[in-house]
Structure formats: structure tokens, C-alpha cells
Write a structure and sequence with these properties.
Layout lengths: L2 H32 L3 H5 L3 E6 L8 E7 L2 H9 L11 E9 L4 E9 L10 E4 L4 E4 L4 E7 L5 H15 L18 H8 L1
Length: 190
């Protein structure tokens, strides 16, 4: 195999990977739009912009830091007009809690659209739409973050009460009755 063939296959592979990533993102957006957005509508804090690779619907994201103005300007100017005027936008580093580990990402926040600051926890809803499909940028509604520990405990208690309600019948398990001695008679005869 010549070096030229190796470079051609590399370009094809990169092109294939880019198309696969875009297709997976579109699929995730499509699946997310069919999901219920009632929770997001109840505590809608605004909209943010992020890349398709940073989109984790219904997952809490901790806002770790806001990027400095110079860094923000450099990054936003690379998107050629998508974030005009640049001064209206803030750029944050966020950490997504996806269970087995954490993932870092970026949130582009228009100061007029959402109230986000360092230390906040936001939840991305499932109602994403493309802001710029070519740049793989999504607009997503945000919620105020997950329930507090007290709210989680209250929900768990309600579920336990529903499962252990008085509608269940006593099946006699654990009661001392005459039937318990039946097994002993059979073992004596053997």
C-alpha cells in the first residue's frame, strides 16, 4: 500500500467520523424532542447554546468557571457571526454528572436569555434545536438543576408508601400455623 493510499483512507475515515457524529447528534436531538418537556417548562431558566458533543439532556451540569473576556472573544469570533454581538455572551466551563464519570463541556450564555453563574447547577432539557447545524451548535432550554436531597427523600418515601399500602393482603408468610409442621413429618419417615 502506498503512502498516497494511506492518506486517502485517512481522509475518508475522518469524513465518515464527522458525518457519524453529526448523525448521532441529530438522532439525539430528535429523540430528545419527543420526550416530555413538562419539567423543563415548569422551571425554565432560559436558553443556552452548546455544541452537540456537550449535549446531555436531563442531566445536571455544575457551572465550574466563567472564561475570561479575551478567551471568550477569541472562541466566539471563530463562529463568524453566530454570536453577534460578542459582548452579550458569556462562556462557561461546565461539568456533567453522567453516572460513571464526569464530562467537561462549554455553555454559551446570552446574558438576556438565561441567568447562569459560577457555582450554579443547570439541567439541559430535551427540547434542543439547531442554532447552527454546520457548526454543530444547539439551543437548549435549561432548568434550575436537579432536586435537592430533601426532595429526593420525600419522593422515595412517597414511592415506599405506595408500594406498602393497606391494599395488600396477608399471605400468611412468617405466621406460626399447623402447616409449618408438615415438612417435619415427611423427614421423620425417611
Amino acid at each position: 500500500m502506498s503512502e498516497e493510499d494511506q492518506f486517502d483512507s485517512g481522509d475518508s475515515r475522518r469524513s465518515f467520523m464527522k458525518k457519524g457524529t453529526l448523525a448521532a447528534t441529530a438522532l439525539a436531538v430528535g429523540a430528545g424532542t419527543t420526550a416530555s418537556t413538562a419539567a423543563a417548562q415548569q422551571d425554565d431558566d432560559g436558553e443556552v447554546v452548546l455544541t452537540g458533543s456537550d449535549y446531555y439532556p436531563d442531566v445536571d451540569a455544575d457551572v465550574l468557571a466563567e472564561l475570561e473576556t479575551g478567551t471568550r472573544d477569541t472562541i466566539l469570533e471563530n463562529f463568524e457571526g453566530t454570536f453577534d454581538p460578542v459582548d452579550d455572551w458569556d462562556l462557561y466551563i461546565v461539568q456533567f454528572d453522567i453516572g460513571s464519570g464526569t464530562v467537561l463541556g462549554h455553555l454559551f450564555v446570552d446574558e438576556d436569555e438565561a441567568d447562569v453563574s459560577e457555582g450554579d447547577t443547570v439541567t439541559l432539557s430535551g427540547d434542543a434545536s439547531f442554532r447552527d447545524a454546520e457548526a454543530n451548535l444547539l439551543e437548549v432550554s435549561t432548568g434550575g438543576g436537579g432536586a435537592s436531597d430533601d426532595e429526593d427523600e420525600d419522593e422515595d418515601e412517597e414511592e415506599d408508601e405506595d408500594m406498602g399500602s393497606d391494599d395488600t393482603e396477608d399471605n400468611g408468610v412468617g405466621d406460626d400455623t399447623e402447616d409449618d409442621d408438615m415438612g417435619d413429618d415427611e423427614s421423620d419417615g425417611a
